[in-house]
Amino acid sequence: MNTSFTAAYDLTGQVALLTGASGGIGTAVAELFAERGCRLVLVDRNPAGAALAARLGPQHIHLTADASDEVSVCAAVAQAIAQAGRIDILVNNAGIAVLAKAEDTTTAQWDQVMDINLRGCFLYAREVGRHMLVRGYGRIINMASQAATVGLEQHLAYCTSKAGLLGMTRVLALEWSAHGITTNAISPTVVETELGRKAWAGEAGVAFKKKIPTGRFAQPEEVAHATLYLASGASGMLNGMNLALDGGYTAI
């Protein structure tokens, strides 16, 4: 690798496919990657992502797709390759949380979370991975959660989906690294996106912050910088890892 800091974190000429692009973390990742010269394919079922792509520059692409639908995912990946010519980086960021007590969790809720958080990530990784295997290079980054390694009340489906995502990360790292592809995961604590601030406002947020050794929640930009590291030329020996961006919460 090039030992120059600037060169290692320069993504000029590379193409990243980012799912869940219109959310707080997705937007922060998109902005940072664009700043480092990366061409972006922003994929989201929310058409508002088109405005983000337009704001970042004409070289960036927005595609509307549903992570829970195999036909939609396959079509989006094929279109991304056709328009951008290649995919060097995959950031599996799309995800949802449906909160309910275990005994109250419906089958429909379970399936909805699994379809997007786990099955969707598998579909994108498989389709993009096939392309990366031919090219002999790739970086796959799966957005997991602290909920992948600890239990959280009313997060039965969410915790299970994110734990499964870590299992998938390890297997892909094992099978594909000989072909120049690394696969890693990031597990943030609560992130202060617009949704995160609303969900953890008031006493609930104050109480949860007391459980985090750093005493605060994460910022979207902090997650974006961790993602940039895993996508960069500086992280070639990181493979199959789960980067806990949780202020020490899971260390307790």
Write the layout of secondary structure elements.
Layout: H1 5-8, E1 15-19, H2 24-35, E2 39-44, H3 49-56, E3 61-64, H4 70-84, E4 89-92, H5 107-135, E5 138-143, H6 156-176, E6 181-188, H7 194-199, H8 203-209, H9 220-231, E7 242-245
Helix pairs in contact: 2-9, 4-5, 5-6
Kindly report the CATH topology: Rossmann fold
- Which structural class fits the helix and strand makeup? alpha/beta
What portion of residues is helical? 40-55%
What form results from the Cα inertia axes? globular
The biggest beta sheet is recorded as: 7 strands, parallel
Q: Give the termini separation.
A: 35 Å
- The counted number of beta strands is 7
**Number of helices, counting only DSSP H or I runs of 4 residues or more:** 9
Which CATH architecture? 3-Layer(aba) Sandwich
Detail the poorly predicted runs: none
CATH class: Alpha Beta
> Mean pLDDT, rounded to whole units?
95
In CATH, what is the homologous superfamily? NAD(P)-binding Rossmann-like Domain
Description:
45% of the residues lie in helices and 15% in strands. By secondary structure, it is α/β, with parallel strands linked by helices. It has a single domain, classed as 3-Layer(aba) Sandwich (Rossmann fold), CATH 3.40.50.720. A seven-stranded parallel beta sheet has the order 3-2-1-4-5-6-7, sandwiched between helices. α3 links the parallel β2 (39-44) and β3. α4 packs parallel to α5. The model has no long low-confidence stretch (mean pLDDT 95).
